Amino acid sequence: LHADVAADTGRTKAQIPAIVSTLACNPGATTGSNVLWDAVNRTLIDLATSLPSVIMSHSNMDESLLDGLHTDGAGSAKAGKRYARAVTTLLGATSGYAKWSISGGTVIDSTTTTISLTHGSGTDLTPTTGITGFDVSGDNGTTWVIPTAVRTNATTITLTHTSMATNSNRKVRYQYGTSSDVSAAVVDNSDL
């Protein structure tokens, strides 16, 4: 699609970068679509890391929905502002996209995992306690538990969970699936 748009406009993909964002969360959905929902979001995120002319603008997981699939007016307005920030950042008028990302994680011990974050346009994150949306596995993703999550500092979240392996079988996921708990989602302190 991106190549076709570039060809139709007589430009290169680098001259007209594609800007993508994630799907929104649908708390009322059945769990049967979680794997597909996450696969679509993962594909969108991976496009931006694997294709040089594709930009991941932002997450839509915190937007409100009209019909269980499409954003309502308020959600669309929020997404529009975030897309606009991506455009102005690409044009050099602003710096930083309206997103933060997970840059890594560390197994501290059998009951503690820390997550490192990289900011886009913010410098800190909220909430400080009761963060929702994380899942941790100690058996390479066969079973998942919901940890207690707290802000450690501006770029670190500490997850406390049941005892599990301290080897490479430790996995963490955030806002997995169509009905993820976004009631106390991690947000940065930017205006977006």
What does this entry look like structurally?
This protein has 192 residues and is α+β, with helices and mostly antiparallel strands. 22% of the residues lie in helices and 29% in strands. It has three helices and ten strands. The strands form four sheets. Strands 3-4-8-7 form a four-stranded antiparallel sheet, with no helix packed on it. Strands 1-2 form a two-stranded parallel sheet. It has a two-stranded antiparallel ribbon with strand order 5-10. 22% of the residues are buried.
Q: What keyword list fits this structure?
A:
alpha+beta, 3 helices, 192 residues
Task: Describe the structure concisely for a colleague.
Helix content is 22%, strand content 29%. By secondary structure, the chain is an alpha+beta fold.
- Would you report the number of β strands? 10
Principal-axes shape call: globular
Quaternary status: single chain
Number of helices: 3
